[in-house]
Amino acid sequence: MQSDVSRLLCDPLTGDLVILAPARRFRPDATGKTKSKSKVKPGDPFSPSALKKHEKVLAVYGRGNFKCTTVQNIFPVFHEDRELVGHQEILVEGARLQPFSVFSVGQMEAVLKAMAERSKILRRNPKLKYMVVFKNEGREAGASQIHPHSQIFGVSFVPQRLKQLQARRRRQKDAFTKLLKEATAERIVYADKLILAYADPVSRFGYGVRILLRRRIDNITLAKPTELLSMAKALHSLMPLIRKRELAYNFYFHDIFADKNEIFEIRFAPRPNIWGGFEMDSGINVNPVPAEDAAREYREALSRASR
């Protein structure tokens, strides 16, 4: 139906872009927080039995009892052959209804490996220019399903905000060095010889963390297996505090295909505070947690969990 076709709209006064995606309103909601009007029957759409019936399973990754299954999103914002060209996948993580925050390091590593493999495949699609890989966990972070999963969006255009980021980075030839210098001792949550995870001093969200490799790479497909393992360990180190505070969170990373000189990093964004009118109007976020305090809480929670 034409009424269900996504469209890109522009506010004539502010220039803000909005994607109108009517078909998304039919997504099932399994969080139990709201009454869903979905046309899909309630239940776990990502259970092993449901995945066996899914018509658009793209690939399965992993060995043993823990596998990651990637399926095409049946409630997409973008479409392969319509006005807003793009591709959307869901990466279903394991068979159990358990949050990502309780995954083992090995399970998190398996998820990151699957993300890297899917990224390699989407990068070959000539229709796509930009890709973002992200996880929403918790209602406040935008999750509508309890089953652990991540999402991958490939889009035929580069968002304006990222174009601005590109231009700013080009003007700062030492941008990567500046990021490394931000990882002061009092801000570090996890570090090894390959990676740094540190509380971001300019995070838009309280307890925000940047996960940065010690060597500069353009995108996740260039990460070595040992680096993917270090990323998993860094993510795992954040979870004791997330569980303690019962925080919803997102983590994400992007790739602009034509830009061969990006700085790959994982942005980890807990959602303890909800944006109010000031943030909505000004575009300036209020973060109530200094980076040094956030890092200390992460380290203390990790230390207690390790005892």
Structural features, described:
With 307 residues, this protein is α+β, with helices and mostly antiparallel strands. It has a single domain, classed as HIT family, subunit A (2-Layer Sandwich), CATH 3.30.428. Helix content is 28%, strand content 22%. The chain has seven helices and twelve strands. The protein has helices spanning 48-53, 105-122, 160-171, 175-182, 225-245, 277-282, 291-306, and strands at 7-10, 17-20, 57-61, 68-72, 86-93, 130-137, 149-155, 188-191, 195-199, 209-213, 249-256, 265-270. Strands 3-4-5-7-6-11-12-10-9-8 form a ten-stranded antiparallel sheet, sandwiched between helices. A two-stranded antiparallel sheet has the order 1-2. A hairpin with an 8-residue loop joins strand 11 (249-256) and strand 12. The longest helix is centred in the last third of the chain and has 21 residues, at 225-245. The protein is globular, with a radius of gyration of 19 Å. It starts with 6 loop residues before the first strand and ends with a helix. 33% of the residues are buried. Residues 32-41 have low confidence and may be disordered.
Q: How much β-strand is present in the residues?
A: 15-25%
Shape: globular
Low-confidence stretches: 32-41
Quaternary organization: single chain
The proportion of residues forming helix, as a percent range, comes to 25-40%
User: Taking strands numbered 1, 2, ... along the chain, how are they ordered across the largest sheet?
Assistant: 3-4-5-7-6-11-12-10-9-8
Q: Could you say which structural class the secondary elements and strand pairing correspond to? A: alpha+beta
The helix tally amounts to 7
- Helix/strand order, N-terminal first: EEHEEEHEEHHEEEHEEHH
CATH class, named: Alpha Beta
CATH architecture: 2-Layer Sandwich
Spell out the CATH superfamily. Answer: HIT-like
Biggest pleated-sheet summary: 10 strands, antiparallel
CATH fold name, please?
HIT family, subunit A
Radius of gyration: 19 Å
Give the total of domains: 1
